[in-house]
Amino acid sequence: MLDSLPPTSVVAEIVAPTERVEQAIAQSPASASPAAPGSVLPPSQDASPPPARPSLRLPAPTPAAGPTDPVTTPTTAPQPQAETAPALPNLESLGIVRLQADRQSFDGERQLVIAQGRASLRFRGGVLFADEIQVNLQANTLKAEGRVWLLRGQQVARGSQLTYNLLQESGTLLNAQGRFNTGPTGARDLDPSIPPSTDIADRIQSVEELEQPVTNVRRIGQLLVTSAFGGEYTDPSDLQSLTNPGAVLPTQISGFDIRGGVQNVRFQADRLDLGPDGWTAKDIALTNDPFAPPQAEIRSAQATYQAPPGSLGSLGIFGSGLVLENSLRIPLPDNNSVVQEREGGILTVGFDGVDRNGAFLEREFSVINENNIQLSLTPQFLLQRAINLAGGGRELGNDVEVNSVNPLDAFGLVGRLNANIAPNTQFSLITNLASLNPENLGTQSRISSDLRQDFGFFDLLLNYRYRERRFNGSLGVQTVQQSYGVTLETRRLNLLALAGVNPSDTFPRIDGLNFRFQASYQNLLALTDQPNLLGTQPSPALANLNRFQLETGLTLPITLWREDPLPATPDAGLRYTSAPVTPGLRIIPEITGVITNYSDGTSQNSLAYRFGADLTLGKFAGDFFDYTNLRADYLRSTGQGFSPFLFDRLVDRNVLVLGATQQLLGPFLVGVTSAINLDTNEAFNTTYRLEYSRRAFGVSLSYNPNQQVGILAIQLNDFDWQGLGGQN
Questions:
Q1: Positions of E strands within 137-248
Q2: pTM score
Q3: What is the pLDDT of residue 369?
């Protein structure tokens, strides 16, 4: 699901230079014909355009207005003069900083200020442009009609009519279209405690640019929703398990998982009701796609967004569905941030053949969704286990047998907690219970917790794990019964960039010199086969030892050949992918050293050499066989000693990893990746993949017969672009 939305009305990012320039309003229909309810589409082109609109200029430095210059209402009333028309009043008490237009008049009887032609108004709620703006001094309201644009910070929206109460900071925008940002920038722009910048309009090159075709599209992230079937999945293309066996891999996926997010979102709604801390919309469509028609969108009969001061905003959607390719609709549960306010919804079907005996049903509830803390609970009904137990079965997950049936063994629970303790300190906790029977919690639960402190170039990590599964090459999946410790790790640092060297100038074929370092100290309780350690724990195959480990690596990616990609347009570079494909050949030499010492006096030290090659042919824009990717990695490890544990013992010292991905027809891709132990000629980690790839989204199904795990993934891509969006 999309990340939470920003805490006010209708907004969108604007990309504009800082210099003062002439401003203009695009020649577009005075009132855009609304698209079909629930569809994000460009405005209708059938409406007859009104006369061309004059340009919107910044106020001239000279105080007097010429016959063709816009008239500016000052925030302090001028001295009374002998004239027939009443003087324009002081609007500062209503929070209006400046009102500017070609023509302004004041109806003293109705207490109405009327601004017509190139009208703009700066107020606490942002900046407003329209064909006509009326300010009612008695009712403390304003009304804007024609081509209405509402801006604040980097956010923008347009509509046919806006009515707004200046004191209550609430109103209604009709036929609304726009773009908002859910990231930190959007939150700052819409924070009611932070007044909008008074030079917002000055930073706009031209309002006309918002109605131009979308330009400068680039992918900046993704929202990835995955569901593993059978257990925990480890991607064979992740070489960390081969150069440093027993490491916790970032690509491990267990059960249902959501990572990343989408910050830039386009929307269209028949009506948005704005409030001081949120909004409500009817028949709204939300999409991450810069272009129209959108390839993916959420259509909702009603959406409500609330963001009280000091807390993270929460989005409620009702009667919603994720629509792909304007045809396939995936129902979404009615969603609110408070559990007791949930109404209806759907269940998610999952499959876990390791811990839960097969198929199960689950539903996630957000219990706490504040600015610095999020807590969710996912109750589960283990359908297949319940059927087996009702039929006389006695086996639970992990080959655990029970003497008597307890109904609580048919239920599970997953809890997720994320807390921002300080600006650079985060805490996370995942508790995974495959049974709610207290007698079986020891064998049916897994716990993972991390406390991370960010120090800039490196992170300090305190962690605790209970019954964590780790993949170790040809030895397969191993369970670490319990571990806790501290880790100091660097980010992947580009040494050339840190030294101020631009590779494109000095070394045009070198993509960087990447360095990483990690030091850790852990207490481990894990499976062993060493006779001198057997029997030291209640389970005779477990040993409890301390481990100190140092790891460092250096990578030098080099591009030998590269072609220019196609332009980032819907019918070229972005036809089937979120970023234009760059054909080329790249090699990746790497060296990794690992030093490991254990409290029983043993050690395992290794030096791993890697030589990788990545070849891409085609630009993924044709209908058939226009994309081929071939990858090969050769790893050779040397060293001495061996680990007393099985989960981190180095056994694969001579490995070849091969991968291939091929376009078949349109957006359909097939791929295979396999790791082969050249000493035994055994393929120990092979994954087959089928993928449907589009610009805005992707769906893939992978299966690994060695791990007996499959994974279904849905990906929504996050873009940045110039313009409002929706036009091709």
A1: 141-152, 155-165, 170-181, 215-233
A2: 0.75
A3: 75
